[in-house]
Inverse folding.
């Protein structure tokens, strides 16, 4: 069952479970928030993101490699690179000059190439949780999880994937379009 909950004004939480079809026939669920307009920006000559903070066990596997190495602050991540955090560990990735993704403990993610030239890279969250905050104009962040794909056009949100693939998006400001194989 897919469902939407509101725990307080300004927060919208969407949960999608594996193998469950949405109740509507819409191609994507769209939730509107406080943002009326957004802008996207990106350059192809810069890295996708930079590791700006780490605490505990944070590892990095470069594109095409199965070998994990200890990640270092200021490591550049490019499409195809994977990052994971251990128990009681966390990290922060700077997506742009004023946008940061905080990575919680026991999280595994991969940076995916942009859907089209000029777009920002995409986030493939395989398990765990991330928190995104931007001081810039709202950006269009594309994400993938084991059971859903979507785009978030907002300034603050939490994206969480449970071990069984259940995906939860907690949106504080902005809007989200989300879909799964059933629609």
């Amino acid at each position: 069952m897919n469902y939407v909950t509101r725990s307080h004004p300004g927060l919208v939480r969407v949960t999608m479970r594996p193998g469950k079809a949405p109740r509507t026939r819409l191609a994507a669920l769209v939730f509107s928030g406080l943002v009326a307009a957004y802008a996207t920006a990106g350059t192809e000559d810069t890295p996708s993101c930079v590791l700006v903070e780490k605490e505990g066990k944070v590892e990095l596997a470069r594109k095409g490699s199965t070998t994990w190495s200890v990640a270092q602050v200021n490591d550049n991540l490019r499409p195809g690179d994977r990052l994971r955090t251990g128990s009681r560990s966390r990290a922060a990735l700077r997506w742009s000059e004023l946008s940061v993704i905080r990575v919680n403990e026991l999280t595994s993610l991969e940076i995916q190439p942009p859907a089209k030239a000029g777009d920002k890279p995409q986030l493939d969250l395989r398990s765990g949780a991330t928190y995104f905050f931007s001081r810039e104009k709202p950006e269009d962040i594309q994400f993938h999880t084991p059971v859903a794909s979507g785009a978030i056009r907002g300034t603050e949100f939490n994206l969480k994937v449970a071990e069984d693939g259940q995906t939860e998006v907690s949106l504080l400001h902005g809007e989200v379009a989300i879909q799964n194989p059933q629609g």
Observations:
- Confidence is low (pLDDT under 50) at residues 20-45.
